């Protein structure tokens, strides 16, 4: 899928899928999986705050719960100029996908592409568990 198309879906998710009564700060994410399927999500806030779910994780958990495991591209757009994924979401992206492209978008004409290595260098992932010295 073209970046612009995916960004449009993220913008749509920001505007129509987020639930942000507390911060009023809206974020949208759109994923293209390796099999070509597409999932979107908005951030969801909860009155006790800590259960709040970021847009990226909403979209990723929708995909994973449908059996999809490999993110090809993720477009993210938020109410701040250059809204980057939080640390938790970077780790969740790390779990699902070999080398996903992460698109940080302000509009369909203003975006930059990053690798996971750009955003989460020296990361810990599933294969590191197999390297543990206690693993026999
Ligand atoms: N938020 C996201 O949805 N994604 C991010 O990567 C950054 C933060 C949301 C969480 C919360 O609903 C609001 O933005 C303010 O932190």
Concise overview:
The protein has 136 residues and is an alpha+beta fold. The chain is 32% helix and 24% strand.
Which key features would you list for this structure?
binds tetrahydrodeoxyuridine, 5-stranded mixed sheet, alpha+beta, globular, 24% strand
Give structural notes.
This protein is α+β, with helices and mostly antiparallel strands and 136 residues long. The chain has a single domain (3-134), classed as Cytidine Deaminase, domain 2. Helix content is 32%, strand content 24%. It is built from five helices and five strands. A five-stranded mixed beta sheet has the order 2-1-3-4-5, sandwiched between helices. A hairpin with a 4-residue loop joins β1 and β2. The mean pLDDT is 96.
What general outline do the C-alpha atoms trace?
globular
Bound small molecules, by name, code or SMILES, are: tetrahydrodeoxyuridine
Q: What is the second-level CATH architecture?
A: 3-Layer(aba) Sandwich
List the secondary-structure elements in sequence, H or E. HEEHEHEEHH
